[in-house]
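Protein Entry — a single chain follows
Next Lines — sequence and tokenised fold
***
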Amino acid sequence: MAAKEDSKTYVLFVQTFKHDYYEFPGGRIEHGESLLDGGSKIETPYETAVRETLEETRGYLSQQQLVSASSPKQLVEVGKFRIFLAKLPFF
């Protein structure tokens, strides 16, 4: 997630319990209920990103905020990693 205020851009990282560094929220694709349409299936990478961000930020932002501020089309791929950009107001 990224937020802009004035000419500055802020990026969200989460601190891991296992390590002494910060990283992007992330995780594995799971089977279960789809966050976007409620159906039962394997998550898409985008749904995984939304779910993991909700979990790792302890619900600070709502699912609706994340989905409305992002898109499956706003994808950056680096090796085997996929990163989705969510543009949120700074608060």
User: Anything to note?
Assistant: The chain has one domain: 2-89. Strands lie at 2-5, 8-11, 14-15, 22-23, 31-33, 40-42, 70-78, 81-89.
